[in-house]
Structures are given as structure tokens and as C-alpha cells.
Amino acid sequence: MASRPIAAAAAAAAGRRPPPPTPRRPATPTPQTKPLTPQSHPSERRAEAEAAGEAASPRAHPTPSPSGRSAAAAPPTQAAAAVAGLALLLAASPASAAFTPTLEPSNALSLPTWAIHVSSVLEWCAAMGLFVKLAAVRKEPSLAGMAWGMLPLLAGALAACTFHFFYNAPALYPMVAVQAGLTVGGNATMAVAAWRIWAVAEEEKEKVAAGGEKAAKDV
What we know:
It is built from seven helices and no strands. With 219 residues, it is mainly alpha-helical. The relative contact order is 0.05.
């Protein structure tokens, strides 16, 4: 740098024009390149943010309990205990037992047996209705009496079905005696109704025979 003034002075003394100074090029700043870091997935960034938030919050580090267990393993709260107690009370209540599916006892009737019981009762009712209709058509009240004589047996059948419906419960054992009494009484009433039908038929025969004899005498 000191040689330039000296050369300029020497050139001026020699009567020559000093050479123009060479322009200095400004130093260009070198760009600072940032290190390339791989971009993380949004879920990873969210997980990192949550982890940072948990680390900053005081709840992220539970204080150990005196027994050596963390707060996560602490006993349930009062609300959870109340809910559990209510569930136990409901499970032990008699109302819940009615809705609990249980297996039928060994003395339960099968489906085919129930079909026979129900069909027998329906057939008996149909027979009673036929006797009533026949009595109305033939105008013979004795035929309607047979329907009334069959009524005690129908009541006995319903008593037996009721006893079986409740799985022959010991509290319903008197129903067996009621069913037996209705059966005996129904057999007796049907016998009386049948005798009345026979008696009416005999009277009709006698009337027809008497009318025939009278007609023969008139001839």
C-alpha cells in the first residue's frame, strides 16, 4: 500500500501522468447456508409439541406416593366408587333378577308337550261350541246341556296348565287337588248331560211310535 504514493511521486517528478488507481472490488458477503434438516411429519410435530407441553406442565411428573406407587395407580375416585356401588345394588335387586336369563328347571315341559296341552284345550272349546250350535239348529236344549257339562273339565285343564306354567311350584300344589276335583265333577256333569240327551231321544221315539199306532188305528 505504501508503494503507490512513492510511484506516483516518481512519475510526477519524471513528468509523467500517474496511473489511475485500480478500483477495489467490494467484498461480497458469503451467504450463510442453514443446515438442511429433514422435515418431520405433522403427527410427529404434534407429538413433539404435546411432549413439550407435558414436560412443561407440573402434572407430567407425578409425585410418588408413600407406598411407592405413582399417582396413575392410585385408588379410584369417590365418583367411581359410587357408580360401582350403585351397579352392585342394581345387580342384587329382585327386579334385575326378573330380566336375567336363567336356565329352565329339569321339570319344565318341552315345546311339543306344550303344543299338545294347548291344542287339547282349544279342541275342547271347539267341541263345546259345536254342541251349542247343534242345539240351536235342532232346537234340543239337552245338547246345549252337554256343553255346560264339559265346562268343569275345561277349568281343570286350565288349572293343570297353570301349574305346569310355573314349573310345578310347591306353592301351587293345591292346584293339583283342584284339577282332580274338577275332573271328577266334569265327568259327573257330562254323564248327567249324556243321560238327558238319551232320555230326550227315548221320549221322541215313544212319541213317534205312539203317533204311528194312532195313525194305523185311524186307517
